[in-house]
């Protein structure tokens, strides 16, 4: 097994991704770029992980984006399984800084949906704005627990909160709230906090219930036609924070003078 093949295998296993899932994710990337050379088949990746082969630059870029690692992390020094775990835990999706700023800064001109929707097929946590310098580059790729709010984007297929929160909505997250009380009773959905979660298979956003046995359940809206999800609290899932606001940015014609709508959760 080549060194880079071993690294790719370690990282994919830590990401809990199958070869077929990587193929699907790189297909999204290839379609976004209009470049079939960026797509990686499951059989090809399996050979790369087992044998010594060269990797074309475009395919390597696709793997970096899917796994959330840098070029240096794949091509320089060897990484252990523990190092891979820490790296993946703190890495964010490879989204252009200009897109990040445009989505979360309401003072900036609106971004047309076609310029950013393709980056978020699934629910995603965005890097804090403080990690993006004046030139629009991300300066740090580690998760910060500072008071600054985080932002997430609900994936195109995330119907958990429909019709109250639509897929592709942007949510503002208070990362200071990272615990859930077991057995707490709410009298209406408007009293219930919305949590942003991270599990081994990605990010999730919705109402939650924690039972006395330590099982955390993601509860979808009754109208969402979505299934419940369960994890072992703090073993299989962690709380990124509680949602403060849902921001839905609407691109109306300039003559209307309406550029954004911000809904605050009480």
UniProtKB/TrEMBL annotation:
Coiled coil: none annotated. Residues 45-74 form the HTH cro/C1-type domain. SUPFAM superfamilies: lambda repressor-like DNA-binding domains. It comes from the Bacteria. GO terms for molecular function: DNA binding. This is Helix-turn-helix transcriptional regulator.
